[in-house]
Structures are given as structure tokens and as C-alpha cells.
């Protein structure tokens, strides 16, 4: 395998740089996916029938915690990639670990939020609005949960193999994924919660 | 557990299908065991990551599905051949036209085209494989097991029966209570994920792995068409993913997306479906345009006329393909402004398509044309497709469409576009590239026989449907009375369908005959080709090119022959190859189990299968397999052997 030392480790082989480009293309597909879900949500937002509407169920408290956790985790995954570029394996693993813990807390709060809604009688089956809300938030939450498993697998590989072109490449791609989920959350925060609370 | 749900009752035809599926399965198992081919099958095919073998498997699966979809078509034509036929009942007819549409579009045309792209794209750009060979295997097995899932619906639980577009509220649990539309949402979802991954894979392959010197505007036209197709796939398929997921939630978990009450909106389905569905049409048509461009240039012995305008017209078609979806439901009440907008965008597509037609005609002009089988299909495509296109413009006019909507006129129109557009193209491409993959040509005389049967019978089958549509016969009608006067034209159409069958039988017989009797090609360039795939040996060695070619012009191989520009200048060195892996196949199997369990709401197996999928993905991530090398000596020996020299 040819390693080009002039490039960062995660780009250093042809396979690595193809994988990163391929992941960008995949993120393009993910944008199309979430764009469709947002469209469905915006079509459905006022179709709450006899069920509760957004302002009746949304609570700003947990949402702010979720936002704080996810935005901070985007910062820590950035620090992990920074540490990787300097070759600090331990710092890198710590930052990925913190990212995953914050992701876990985010997912936990989201589950609590869902349980609260269901407890209040706002379920997936209640109305078109709630169906689209649960599926939009759930798709994002499922992505975060999948990211936890993925990030965990990368941590184990880092621990076993250290920083090499393969693990560096995986970490970098994972960081792209994590930032992307963060951006999607910003849209959810703005167009679902803030708009719903106004 | 309630086993009644799994049974399909009543129809002797379905019992016949069950028995034939069981017999075929037993036959395959006995055959493989008797000839001791299990190991061969596993090592050479099921675990392969070689783009050529994956391409061949795609095409084999597509031919199988062509047979299945063809049988469906014959059953429909027979049922409507005369007034008051008693061959199928209404329910069975509904299932047959639904699966015919799904199978022909998603499990025949698409995989056939993706198969040809798999075989040809890396060769035409001078690469050794696609960018992600293992992902390519994952794509194939997801497609394959998605197709299998849809096919078993016929004998286990019942097929989808709400049309291939599965409009709500008809496709909802309330009005379609069988598991048929559960199969629809899960089978399409699984194969759709495979297709999306193919899209990502080929975009990276084409943009990053071209031979040195091959600038974007020096790529063969088929590569341009493949690139744009895959861009459409990446942006259109996520919409289908969402639509199918919402459908699944509605049917399995009682959500309210497309319901008639509680704030649901049935038209949302129609919009989402066609936002994917119309680009889907161009996903199967654009590569066909690419195939025709290659064939016309090769057999006219001229370079393609208007290369740049060809590229730009395809770019414009790709963009417009996302802006026309509402023309599928002008009559559903969205108002004059919206209909006007979609009417104009739809008619606008005729402009770049017309540019392409004229470019092909100008390429033919003053060319030295040889009438080989692939060229015959191409020449037949131009006028027949134009009829399809012109009737398309008729349908595009929203006010006139109120007359044509949901009549046989529409059915005739889209068969006039899709059969010459996609089916003729894949058959032409199949004949054209067959010698590259297998090292011998298909017999031209048999090929021409099949062509004339298919081309003439096609028109006999579908032209009467235009007239029937104008007479007022609606589509998806399973029977009609003699007083309607629809009988004679429908009978004529049935005669044409029989002719099409004969054509396809000759085509398949030709494959058998040629395998036995056709002489081997030794120079790898049977048609005097223009592009890089003809510069390597036939059949293609595992590494594609012993030396990576250096490209200076369009039609690089042609100019290297005519102007003596050397393509291969470097020395043969060792070649890196990816190793085979069984994990994509295993993942496909688990996806199949997952889909089947979800269809029947068997939650525990579904959860176990979902966990299994995650575990297989994790083991793939933990693999530290860096492939292997083929030594320079071995490459030299293989090259000599393929050229027929003694080692």
C-alpha cells in the first residue's frame, strides 16, 4: 500500500481518500433523506386532529440540555481529530469517549422525552402531526444511537492498533458523521422546537 | 402462532407456482450436490468482490426477473384477450399487474443496467475495480434478497395488489388487509438500500479512479450517463427510503401519515412516491442513452456527433427529472397553476431528448454502418422511442391529460418509452459486451431473428393499446363486456405478446447455441471498438489491465489504433487485489430474514435479525484484510495465455 506522507494520515492512501470522498457523497444522500423528513413534518405540523399540537407538548428544558450536549460533543469530536493529527493516542481516545458519553446522555434524554409524550397521550398513532414528529426525531435519534455503536467499535480498534492510516481514516469519517448529526439537530431545534414554542 | 396467514388459497395457478418453485429449488440443490459445485459456487460467485462477476450475477438475476415479469405480462394479455375471460379473477389480476410493474422496473431494468455498469464502467475508465469492491458485493446481495423477498410473496401470504405505485388510501391496512403491501414496503426498502450504495460507489469510482489523462470531457458517453444516473440515484432513493418507511409505520405500527382521518394525508404518498418515481424513469433511461451512443459510434465508424451537447443534454434531463413529478396525477386536484408549471417542465424535457436524437442521427450520417444485432436494436430504438416521446408530450398537456389519464393510452405510452428505451438498450448492450465478458460473440443470424420478432411484435402488442385508450378502455381493468368493442384490438395485442415471447425464446436459445458453437475471440476487440474496454483481453483477466492505460484523447483505443499512440507504456508490476469475503452474502441473508419477520409482524425474530445485521457490520469493520498481490510473472503468463500464445 502506497502511503503519501505529504497528506494527513487519514488521507494518506488512495483507498483512504476515496473512502472520505465516498462518505461525503453518502452524506449528500443523508441530506436528501432528512430534507424529505422535514418536508413531511412541515406538511403535517398543523394536522394534529383531536390530539395535542406542538406548543401543548413541547418543553424547552430537556431540549436545551439535548442541544447543549450535542453541540458540545461536536466540539469534542473535533478535539479528537486534532489530537489524532498530533499523534496523541490517549487524548484522542479520551475525547472520543467524552463525545460518546454526551451522545449517550442525549439519547437518554430523548427517550425520556418520548416517554413523557406517550404518558401525556401523545403517541405515534394519535395524529399525522405526532407521527411525523416521532419519525423525524426518531430517525435522528437512531442515527445518534448507531453512532454510539460505531464510535465504540472505533475506540476498541484504536486501543488495539493505535493510530494508523486505517484507524485515522475511520475516526475522521466518524467525525464527519457526528458533525452532520449536529447540523441536523440545529434544524430540528429551529424548525421543530423553536417554531413550535413560538 | 397462526399459520393461516402464511397460506395463499384458491388459485390452481398459484398452487402450480408453488410446486414449480419447490421443484426448481430441489433441482438446483440436487444438481449442485451431484456435480459437487457447492464449493465452486461459494468461492467463485457468492463471496466474490470482482466487479465483472458481480455484474454477471446482476444480469443473470435480471434475466430471471424478466422471465417472471414476462409471465405476468402474458397472463394479463391472455386474461384481456377476449371479453369476459375467466382465466384470472379480479384479485389475482390485481396482484399480477402490481408485481409485473414492480419486477420489470425495479428488479429487471435497474439490475440489468447496474449489471452492465458493473461490468463496463471500470473497464471503460481504465480502472482495476470499483472504488469499494466489498460494498459492491453488499449492494448486490441486498438487491438480490430484496428481489427474493418480493417474489416469495406470491406463494407465502399473498402479493402486493394496490398497483406498483401503491396509492393510499388503497394501500393502507384498512383497504388492503393482506400482507402484500408489507412485502412491498420491506422488499423495496432492502433492495433500495443496495441501490443507494451502488450510487455512492460508482460516483466515487468515476470521479476518482479514471486512468491518467482521462479528463471529464474525454470520458466515453456511457460513463457520463452512468455518472449522472448515479447522481440521480443518490438524491432520489432517499425519498423512496422515507416513503417506504412511512408506509411501513402506517401499516405495521398504526401511524397516521397517509390515513383518511386523524390528520393523515393520502396525497403525501403520491407526491413522495413520484418525487422518487420520476427520476427513477431517468435512472433506467440515461444509461440506455449511453449504451446507444457507444453502439452507434462503433458501428458507424465515426466519433459521436456533438459530444458536448450530448453531455449537457443529459445534465439538463437529470435536473428536470426532479421537477416533473406532479404530471403523474394532474387529475387529483392541485389546481391550474401547479398543473401549468409541471406541464411546462415536462414538455421541456423533450428538448434535450430531441437534441440527443438528432446527435445520433448525425452520427449515423455518412457513417460506414454495419448492421450487427446490437446496431439493429439501436436503429429500431430511434423511431419507436420517438413515438413514445411524442405521445409523452400529448400526455404532458394537463388539460388534455384529463382525457388520457389512467387509460390504456398511458400504458401504451410508457411501454413505448421503456421498452425501446431500456429493454432494447440492455439487450443491445448485452449483445455488444457479451464477447468482452465471455470471450466469444453471440450468433448474429439468430440475434437478427430474435430482433425482428421482438421489434415487430412489440408494435403489434402495444400500438393497439393507444387506440384502446382513446376508445376509453381504462388501465388495470381485468375484464370487459363484448359491447364495449375492445375485443378485437385486445386480441391483436395478445398475438403480439406471443410474438414477443417467441423473440425472447430465440434470444435465450442464442445464448445456449453460441456457448456451444461460436469460435473464441483472441484479440479482445471483435467489433473494432473505440473505448478502453476493448483494449484488454477477452475474457477479462481478474486485474482488468496488466498495465494502467494512459489516455490522451476521446475514444482513446480508437486513436491508439489509427494514429499509433501507445496506450500501455509502463512495465508490468505486481498488482494489488481485494480478497473475497462471504460477509456481504451473509448480510443479505439476514436482511431477508429481517424483512420476512417484519412482513408478518414476528417481532422477536425481527429484533434478533436486526442485531445480527449490526454484528455483521461490526465484524466487517474489525476485518484487517489488506487483500493480496498478483506477481508480475503471473500477470505476464496470464496475458500470454489469453492471447493464445503458448506459455
Task: List the SSEs and their pairings.
The complex is a heterodimer of chains A (198) and B (647).
Chain A lengths: L13 H31 L9 H4 L2 H27 L2 H31 L8 H34 L3 H33 L1
Chain B lengths: L11 H23 L3 H9 L4 H29 L10 H35 L8 H20 L27 H29 L12 H33 L12 H35 L6 H14 L15 H29 L8 H24 L1 H7 L3 H31 L5 H28 L15 H31 L38 H7 L12 E3 L5 H17 L3 H20 L5 E3 L1 H11 L5
Antiparallel strand pairs in B: 1-2
Helix pairs in contact in B: 3-4, 3-5, 3-15, 4-5, 4-6, 4-8, 4-13, 5-6, 5-17, 6-7, 6-17, 7-8, 7-9, 8-10, 8-11, 8-13, 9-10, 10-11, 11-13, 11-14, 13-14, 14-15, 17-18
Describe the structure.
The complex is a heterodimer of chains A (about 200) and B (about 650). Chain A has one domain (about 60-195): Cytochrome c oxidase, subunit III, four-helix bundle (Four Helix Bundle (Hemerythrin (Met), subunit A)), CATH 1.20.120. Chain A is about 80% helix and about 0% strand. Chain A contains six helices and no strands. In chain A, α1 packs antiparallel against α5. The radius of gyration of chain A is 19 Å and the shape is elongated. The relative contact order of chain A is 0.18. The model of chain A has no long low-confidence stretch (mean pLDDT about 95). Chain B has about 650 residues and is mainly α. Chain B has a single domain (about 5-580, about 625-640), classed as Up-down Bundle (Cytochrome C Oxidase, Chain A), CATH 1.20.210.10. Helix content of chain B is about 65%, strand content about 0%. Chain B has 19 helices and two strands. The model of chain B has no long low-confidence stretch (mean pLDDT about 95). Chain A: One of its GO terms (cellular component) is plasma membrane. Chain A: Belongs to the cytochrome c oxidase subunit 3 family.
Amino acid at each position: 500500500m502506497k502511503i503519501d506522507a505529504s497528506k494527513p494520515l487519514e488521507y494518506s492512501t488512495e483507498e483512504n481518500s476515496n473512502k472520505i470522498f465516498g462518505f461525503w457523497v453518502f452524506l449528500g444522500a443523508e441530506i436528501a433523506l432528512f430534507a424529505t423528513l422535514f418536508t413531511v413534518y412541515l406538511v403535517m405540523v398543523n394536522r394534529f386532529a383531536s390530539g395535542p399540537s406542538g406548543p401543548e407538548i413541547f418543553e424547552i428544558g430537556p431540549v436545551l440540555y439535548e442541544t447543549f450536549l450535542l453541540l458540545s460533543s461536536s466540539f469534542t469530536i473535533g478535539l479528537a481529530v486534532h489530537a489524532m493529527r498530533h499523534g496523541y493516542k490517549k487524548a484522542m481516545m479520551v475525547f472520543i469517549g467524552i463525545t460518546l458519553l454526551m451522545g449517550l446522555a442525549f439519547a437518554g434524554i430523548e427517550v425520556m422525552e418520548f416517554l413523557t409524550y406517550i404518558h401525556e397521550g401523545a403517541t405515534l398513532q394519535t395524529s399525522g402531526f405526532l407521527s411525523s414528529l416521532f419519525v423525524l426525531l426518531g430517525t435522528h435519534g437512531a442515527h445518534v444511537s448507531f453512532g454510539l455503536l460505531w464510535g465504540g467499535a472505533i475506540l476498541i480498534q484504536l486501543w488495539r492498533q493505535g493510530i494508523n492510516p486505517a484507524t485515522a481514516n475511520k475516526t475522521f469519517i466518524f467525525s464527519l458523521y457526528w458533525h452532520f448529526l449536529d447540523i441536523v439537530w440545529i434544524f430540528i431545534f429551529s424548525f421543530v422546537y423553536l417554531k413550535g414554542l413560538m | 402462532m397462526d399459520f393461516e396467514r402464511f397460506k395463499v388459497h384458491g388459485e390452481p395457478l398459484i398452487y402450480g407456482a408453488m410446486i414449480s418453485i419447490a421443484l426448481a429449488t430441489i433441482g438446483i440443490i440436487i444438481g449442485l450436490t451431484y456435480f459437487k459445485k457447492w464449493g465452486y459456487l461459494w468461492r467463485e460467485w457468492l463471496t466474490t468482490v470482482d466487479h465483472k462477476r458481480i455484474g454477471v450475477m446482476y444480469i443473470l438475476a435480471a434475466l430471471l426477473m424478466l422471465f417472471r415479469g414476462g409471465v405476468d405480462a402474458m397472463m394479463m394479455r391472455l386474461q384481456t384477450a377476449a371479453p369476459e375471460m375467466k382465466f384470472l379473477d379480479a384479485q389475482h389480476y390485481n396482484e399480477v399487474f402490481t408485481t409485473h410493474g414492480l419486477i420489470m422496473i425495479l428488479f429487471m431494468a435497474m439490475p440489468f443496467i447496474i449489471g452492465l455498469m458493473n461490468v463496463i464502467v471500470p473497464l471503460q475508465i481504465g480502472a482495476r475495480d470499483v472504488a469499494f469492491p466489498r460494498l459492491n458485493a453488499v449492494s448486490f446481495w441486498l438487491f438480490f434478497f430484496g428481489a427474493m423477498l418480493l417474489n416469495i410473496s406470491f406463494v407465502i401470504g399473498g402479493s402486493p395488489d394496490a398497483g406498483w405505485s401503491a396509492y393510499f388510501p388503497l394501500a393502507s391496512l384498512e383497504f388492503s388487509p393482506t400482507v402484500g403491501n408489507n412485502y412491498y414496503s420491506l422488499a423495496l426498502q432492502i433492495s433500495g438500500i443496495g441501490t443507494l450504495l451502488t450510487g455512492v460507489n460508482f460516483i466515487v469510482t468515476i470521479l476518482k479512479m479514471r486512468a491518467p489523462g482521462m479528463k471529464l470531457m474525454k470520458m466515453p458517453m456511457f460513463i457520463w450517463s452512468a455518472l449522472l444516473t448515479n447522481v440521480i440515484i443518490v438524491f432520489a432513493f432517499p425519498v423512496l427510503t422515507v416513503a417506504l418507511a412511512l408506509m411501513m409505520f402506517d401499516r405495521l405500527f398504526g401511524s397516521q401519515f397517509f390515513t383518511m382521518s386523524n390528520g393523515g394525508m393520502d396525497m403525501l404518498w403520491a407526491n413522495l412516491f413520484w418525487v422518487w418515481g420520476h427520476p427513477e424513469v431517468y435512472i433506467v433511461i440515461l444509461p440506455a442513452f449511453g449504451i446507444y451512443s457507444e453502439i452507434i459510434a462503433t458501428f458507424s465508424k465515426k466519433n459521436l456527433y456533438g459530444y458536448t451537447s450530448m453531455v449537457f443534454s443529459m445534465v439538463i434531463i437529470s435536473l428536470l427529472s426532479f421537477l416533473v413529478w406532479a404530471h403523474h396525477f394532474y387529475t387529483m386536484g392541485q389546481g391550474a397553476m401547479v398543473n401549468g408549471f409541471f406541464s411546462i417542465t415536462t414538455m421541456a424535457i423533450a428538448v434535450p431528448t430531441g437534441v440527443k436524437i438528432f446527435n445520433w442521427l448525425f452520427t449515423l450520417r455518412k457513417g460506414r454502418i454495419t448492421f450487427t444485432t446490437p446496431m439493429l436494436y439501436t436503429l429500431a430504438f430511434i423511431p419507436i422511442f420517438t413515438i413514445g416521446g411524442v405521445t409523452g408530450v400529448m400526455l404532458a398537456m394537463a388539460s388534455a391529460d384529463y382525457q388520457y389519464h389512467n387509460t390504456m393510452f398511458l400504458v401504451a405510452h410508457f411501454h413505448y418509452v421503456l421498452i425501446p428505451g431500456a429493454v432494447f438498450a440492455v439487450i443491445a448492450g448485452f449483445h455488444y459486451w457479451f464477447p468482452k465478458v465471455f470471450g466469444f460473440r453471440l450468433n448474429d443470424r439468430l440475434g437478427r431473428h430474435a430482433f425482428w420478432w421482438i421489434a415487430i411484435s412489440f408494435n403489434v402488442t402495444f400500438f393497439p393499446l393507444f387506440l384502446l385508450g382513446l376508445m376509453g378502455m381504462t388501465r388495470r381493468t381485468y375484464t370487459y363486456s363484448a359491447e364495449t368493442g375492445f375485443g378485437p384490438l385486445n386480441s391483436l395485442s395478445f398475438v403480439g405478446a406471443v410474438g414477443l415471447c417467441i423473440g425472447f425464446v430465440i434470444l435465450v436459445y442464442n445464448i445456449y447455441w453460441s456457448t456451444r458453437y461460436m469460435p473464441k475471440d483472441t484479440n479482445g476487440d471483435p467489433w473494432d471498438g473505440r473505448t478502453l474496454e476493448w483494449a484488454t483481453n477477452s475474457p477479462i483477466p481478474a486485474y482488468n489491465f496488466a498495465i494502467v492505460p494512459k489516455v490522451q484523447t476521446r475514444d482513446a483505443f480508437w486513436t491508439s489504433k489509427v494514429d499509433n499512440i501507445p496506450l500501455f507504456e509502463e512495465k508490468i508490476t505486481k498488482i494489488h487485489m481485494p480478497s473475497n469475503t462471504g460477509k456481504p452474502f451473509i448480510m443479505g441473508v439476514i436482511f431477508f430474514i429481517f424483512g420476512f419477520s417484519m412482513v408478518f409482524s414476528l417481532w422477536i425474530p425481527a429484533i434478533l435479525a436486526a442485531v445480527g445485521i449490526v454484528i455483521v457490520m461490526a465484524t466487517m469493520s474489525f476485518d484487517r484484510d489488506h487483500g493480496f498481490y498478483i506477481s508480475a510473472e503471473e500477470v505476464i503468463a496470464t496475458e500470454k495465455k489469453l492471447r493464445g500464445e503458448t506459455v
